[in-house]
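Dear colleague,

Following up on yesterday's call, I've attached the two folding results inline so they're easy to grep. Please treat them as preliminary; we haven't cross-checked anything against experimental data yet. The first protein's sequence and structure tokens come first.
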Amino acid sequence: MAQTEQALVLISKMVKSPPLKALSLFNSSALQGFPHSHQSISFILHLLISSNLFSHSHSILLKLISGQISASSFTPSSIFHELTLPHLDSCATQVLLHESIINVHVQSQLPKQALFYFNQMIGRGFVPGSNTFNSILILLIKSDSFEEAWRLFNETKSIVKLDVYCFGIMIKGCCEVGYLDKGFEVLGQMEEMGFSPNVVIYTTLIDGCCKNGDIERGKQLFYKMGELGLVANQYTYTVMINGFFKKGLKKDGFVLYEKMKLAGIVPNVYAYNSMICGCCNDGKMNYAFELFDEMRASMVACNIVTYNTLIGGLCQERRVLDAERLMCRMKRDGLSPNLISYNTLIDGYCSVGKLDKALSLFNQMKSSGHSPSLATYNILIAGFSEAKNSAGVTDLVREMETRGHSPSKVTYTILIDALVRSDNLEKAFQIFSSMKKAGLVADIFTYGVLIHGLCVVGDMKEASKLFKSLGEMHLKPNDVIYNTMINGYCKEGSSYRALRLLKEMGENGMVPNVASCNSTIRVLCMDEKWREAGTLLKEMIKLGLKPSISIRNMISDYQS
């Protein structure tokens, strides 16, 4: 029997059956190897959609896209084309058909195709529902096509049915790509169109402000919420607290934390972690552990980030034994140390010179199933380099390469720094040359180490060449390099060059350190350039830098 005749027989059977019975006939025929046609597929989809059996029609459409329903006589595109041709179907059925086709393309992560059928739907005068519109916006944003989502939103917002969720999607998308102004623009449009932004909308934009470094706008939004009678929730407080600490506004973070508790909102693990991190960075370990205890008493489960933050804080204070005890406590609480836990503690032991203990942890980490990262090796190489243990460094580099980790520019910089500290500049430059041959581009820190080494040995000619080459490499000297060069020039008695670099620092918005100013004033006085020395002293005081007593006496003796 010809394929068309088979299709007609099947359709005639489905016509006489209730929708679900017709679906059963359709599915069983497919299992028996029946080659479906445009007609059979079109019929069953129309029947299911007009009967409001959307989950079943959705399933068939997905099978078409995935190739589970296929034949030589049609393609998914040809089926969709036929389905969306103007029929005698009711307007409502055509809307549902279009939306079903759009939604299966969204679910299949096919943004171009979803957008094609959406535009076709609009072009034919059908109005998509808000759920369909929102799902396309989400897919475009997730597919790194924010500009396309922005264009679609602005071109069709006066046509489609919008809801609060739609504006939230766009505001979140704006924040994720760093377009804060556009996010505020969407908020304004939302209010103009008569929608009232809810707590979620405000929290999303506040979070975007904090993550993009605009803490002031985030703060203004937070207080505007209160003025509008919107009650900040746990997440709103958390993103704001985290934003304060990331910006270094610790006092504001602590104040908001107390307000949060007074409002009767129990901090979540993220709020506690932000607070604990702020305390650790500020060296307030006692308060950090008070928060840790409060967290546990409030039945808020600590996570790996909580423990790693505290371990890092203890290591910063060189309390490595306490840090290791905390890691043991973490294990007792049912949490397994991760790579960050081990790296932090290994770094802690390296910083106090306990390399045997660091290696023991390194081996423990490997035996527990963790593969050392490049960062792990860099930590150990730095520790062994600091201890001038060249054999240990060689072994680590060899093992690192055996495990498939090529030395990074950080690795090379660590090795160069160790050689510079050992007064082996020749070998340091050999390693620098090897780094470039390996295709790695040195950064400002690598150059800073080499310039420091040259200045220490008094080779200001080579240091100056390297300093000038930074511009050719499109690198800008930082304040450390400037201060290093200034002190180097002062040691060789070049007051003019030192003063020139001090002025250059100021022009680039940098403040020299006290040592650079003192040394430059001293060498200016030795050259009897009293006027320049006096001017620099005044500028130094104006910048809030405290001149040494000997420098003050030197200038006052001349003036008297």
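Below is the second protein, in the same order (sequence, then structure):
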Amino acid sequence: MNEIPLLPSALLRGPRIRANLESISYTYYANLIQRCIGRRLLRPGKQLHARLILSSTKPDNFLASKLMAFYSKIHQLSYAYHVFDEISHKNTFAFNALLIAYASHSRHRDVLKLFALCLSGTERGEGWDLLDVKPDSYTLSCVLKSMSEVGPVLSGRIHCYVIKNGLDWDVFVGNGLVTCYSRCDDLISAKTLFDEMPNKDRVTWNSMLAGYSQGGCSEECKALFRSMLSSGGVKPDGVTFVSVLHSCADSIDLVFGMEVHQLVLDQQVEMDLSLCNSILAVYAKCGSLDYARKIFDEMTEKDEITYGTMVSSYMVHGYVEEAMKIFREMEKPGMSAWNAVLSGLVQRNQYDHVLDLAREMQASGLKPNCVTLSSILPAISQVSNLNVAKEIHAYAMKINSFENIYVITAMIDAYAKLGFLRGARKVFNRAKDRSVIVWTAIISAYAAHGDARVALTLFYEMLCSNTKPDAVTFTVVLSACAHAGLVDKAWEIFHLELPNYGVEPLPNHYACVVSSLCRAGRLSNAMDFANKIPTGPSAQVWGALLMGASECGDVELAEFVSSRVFELEPENPTNYIVMANLYSKAGRWDEAEKVRDQLKNIGFKKVAGRSRIETFKGLPNFVPLDTTTNSVQMQ
């Protein structure tokens, strides 16, 4: 095979290249480099640069920018950096070219570093003179894009620079700032800037709408969309509708979602895959599964998100078989689809199928990630398989997923429910990022095992570490006090610690205090406390009082409380069972039978107990067949 020439012969014979390179035409070379970029001519482009070097010619800013774009195109950023370094008098145009090269390769921290050096004027280590580099709107657009990916490292400083240099009028810079603040979770600053912008284009509106939508501010997103329509100045496009529909789905707002869908049809917006998925998500998440299925069947193009939306929605609404049918239609499910199915099976208590499906996923060539692990770990504790939990623990360590708080908390919870507290504590001790979720998980583990002393010790260690407890943390701690009969400690935490950390008491907080008073035999105090609740006793509080009255054998109080709790929770079988047992204990058999008849009338059936024995075939279920024989059935 003949060797491809390094440069086309016509270029090699060019007079400006041949004439001893004494007179260099920067524009001519720049055009040649641009041609190499467009046609992806790697070797000719490098040869042109080599000829410049051989002639001891340093490119000017225009030619250098072309060379940097060329090296960026062929993924050789070190050469692009070297080209910029060789420029004698660097200007803004060349500086922007270098920033664009780094940003296009996701070297966002380097972009911010270069911009910081530009603001300082020089780079002492390299001897760069950047005094003539004056950041313009293109510079800031590139920097703001990188900052959106990295975080609010220089957001305040850049915003000040924009105002100081009169660039706040530039709509592109304003759009970049809005996007940057939104992605950095500073929606207040984003909205303030948005309101102050004198000129807003479609990108401006879309940036703010996307910030609200992705930040979970669904109502604000919908309100802003209404303002956009009423302003009449800008017409929404597909990107606009995707953000609004996402907010409708998150807020389960089917009515407004249907209105937006109709607007999409009326304006004849191009229905790309992203927009179709957003429309599908509205109907699926809002429970309109028949219409969602119709849209799904009519879609000519489907991706992982499409299938995942349908699978998750069917699972959430209890249609496990339909979800599995959709899943099995996929030729080669990706990780997100597998995770959606596994998570859905756990949510629908289909624990026995989770491990089999996880093994099937591995057999398909996919490796479980953090989402997979946090999804299947709750099933491990339900099937009582400590060995598998340990295997998952080892795998999580192998793939370095112990920096993920969801894996950590799921692992702690699984070990605790399997009775392996030592393992749960080991996971907690290895956790680097001990957020409030991780602290709550380990406190809950000890509380569930009745070790209130250790649970309280961990709680106060958490406070000393300057980690602010949330409502769930206080529920766990108060529950530990209630089960241990630590009335004074529960009283102290409820009246002192909750207000100190700005946590509003919830019904389960009141119920825990009532439970602790009842366990100490102080029924009258518990009743007084319940009657003083500002919003009135909830079903949980009445349930705690009923349980306390039952334990103390106070039938009269239990009858009074049961009348309230039966009214609030007519289909909760636990309350009926507690009352029936109390009547039986008191020898009042007729009343006990009446309560049991009420229980039958609501359609409650006692679930048969299950036992699991680990064998070489796995962990089969053993379920008793009836009460008259000693036979069992293996499932």
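For the second protein, one point worth flagging: The chain has 36 helices and five strands.

Best wishes,
A.L.
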